[in-house]
Amino acid sequence: MLHNLIFDLGDVIIPIDLTAPIRNFATLANLPEAEVETIWQQYDFINHYETGILDDEGFRSHIRQLLKNDAWADEVIDTAWNTILLDLPVERIERIKELKQHYRIFLLSNTSPIHIRRVNEVLTAMGQPRLDELFERVFYSYEVRIAKPSPEIYQHVLSEAGLVAEETAFFDDNAANIRAAAELGIRAVQVQPPKTILDYLNENL
């Protein structure tokens, strides 16, 4: 019997474009996209940001330093960084609200504070609850200081929320994250286009 549902955020609840920040920072810095992508790969600052090693200001400082522009305001960096987030389909939020009547609902995301603030702004503008109101508990990599697919982050969620792995389903778009969860006995479902999370919920619940 399933009693608990854990959702990823990016490309499960909200569609994302991983290349959009690279394009936008390249435009801002007047650099080729390939050069910015190389910088992203060479320096591990995004992973450090998403695991809480860097705070917001540290993240922005790294961007200014690596792209050699000290004049960018915080808002300029945040806006470019948030271009990864595409339009949020309201029907997905409504479905999660329906599921709360029958399951314990959780969010587990490798993410950053800038992204979470923006998603909450969008939800509020839509007249929807914030993420921490929509879900019973939210688990963000930057707060837990561990990122998927590390087994420790799944064990943390199970322990903190008092969940039994075999009674829990996890929906994520990343194959490595799915494998790691499945190895702990969680019913892990990979969300892959052209299907959406709504399709997988209909098939599995």
Automatic annotation (TrEMBL):
Q: Which InterPro entries match?
A: HAD-like_sf, HAD-SF_hydro_IA, HAD_sf, PGP-like_dom2
Give any Pfam family that matches: Hydrolase
CDD domains attached to this UniProt entry: HAD_sEH-N_like (cd02603)
- Superkingdom as given in the UniProt entry: Bacteria
| UniProt-recorded name of the protein | HAD family phosphatase
Q: Which organism is it from?
A: Spirosoma liriopis
Show the taxonomic lineage: Bacteria, Pseudomonadati, Bacteroidota, Cytophagia, Cytophagales
